[in-house]
Amino acid sequence: MARVTIDDLWLKDDDDGNPPSATARRSLANARDPQKARVPEKWRSNRYGSGMRWRCRWFVVKPDGTKQSKTKAFDKLCDAEEFQAALEDDIRRGRYIDPNADQRLFRDVADQWIETKLDIKPSTLGRYQRELRVYINPTWGDKTLREITLKDLQSWVTGLQKGDYKAELPVNKKGVMRKPKPLSARSIRNIVKVVMAAVFEYAITNKWIRENLAKQVVTPKIETKDEDMVFLTVPEVELLADTAADNGRDVDGLLIRFLAYTGVRINEALALQIQDLDFKGRKARIRRTWSDDGNGKMQLGTPKNGEARTIALPGSLIAQLEKLAEDQSKSEFLFRAKRGGYIHDHNWRTRVWYPTVKAVGMEDEGVNIHSLRHTYASIAIANGADVKTLQKQLGHATASITLDIYAALWPERLNEVADAVDQARLDGIAKAKEEAEKAKAKAAAKFKKAESGIGHDELDKAA
User: Fold this and answer.
1) Distance CA 104, CA 128 (A)
2) Whether CATH 1.10.1330.10 fits 227-409
3) H or E stretch including 55?
4) What CATH number does the domain located at 106-216 have?
5) What is the pLDDT of residues 420-459, one digit of tens each?
């Protein structure tokens, strides 16, 4: 059984091994000044009257199997006894938390947590490291786990929303660090509810703290509104594509059409190799994507949800796509830079996308690359696509994600459903009535036949 011993740091046994008398203990307990208590010198320890009197002492078993002594001091015996009871119960039930374990710096715990992230994509790891370095550690890195309170965390979240927070931001062209800006609800959620909460969870797993404060903090609500998403019309897509081709290359216009009429993410499209396309079957295999390795370099990895998928290609683009693939090896990228090789999406945005959006007068309308993906979804839904089909084409992990984003685009069919239910009711009533009439007629015929038979029998008996 786990034991926690309470030591009296002010009193000791005398040289003959005799413990302090009850009279001496009573006198010390009743004295306001321990030096004036009637306690003989032989029972006074070296610490008599100095510091906290009571000490709880226990042992814990370290991961290597060795025992380590732990202590905690108290002014009052009742507090020590309360701690003793609670700690012994925690040890028995496997809930033991080292009272000093929360003295670790948040920065050190976060570093240890990062080292365990061996099963995630480099781009995700890079994002975690960036959010720790830029947003979290400037405020919390040098604080111990014990010093972080729910109240302070909530104030920090409010600061993130208002742009009032410490941050390690890059410097501008003049060498001055940029000022913090208000963060979006989604960014705050990722920083607090994903990264910071995961660090706390790691600390809980290691029994350094008991609760995850980051999960208790209230963060701004993420609202996905129709007005936040831009849906282009087909003529607008064509205008963007034609303008990009006129001011750049034909492949630039084709890439815009490809994104708008297939719904794939730009770095999925730029990672396509010619061997991934089946022109006759009008299919393409999305099995890779370009992503940041966390250090600003692009590398090929699995798609966002970690799974490859097959998408359908619009027939009107097949001829142009085949022309891009003409005389190229199967391992060559479909969309290629002017001198060959892959297209870096950041460079393409700067060189082609932004100038094109400005040239057609859409720079103030919230149009971005992702608008092409939204446009595909809106066109597909308007033309009868169901949620599962759209999920597979877009590469969402679940159909619920698709619904969360695009539910408002599906036409309301409440009246249709009500009419269908009503018609089913009327059909059911009519069918039941018809069957009842048939049963009634059948019963009447049977009764009539039976009545006729009973009449003859009665006459025979009477005779």
Assistant:
1) 20
2) no
3) strand 54-61
4) 1.10.150.130
5) 888 888 999 999 999 988 888 888 888 777 766 655 555 4
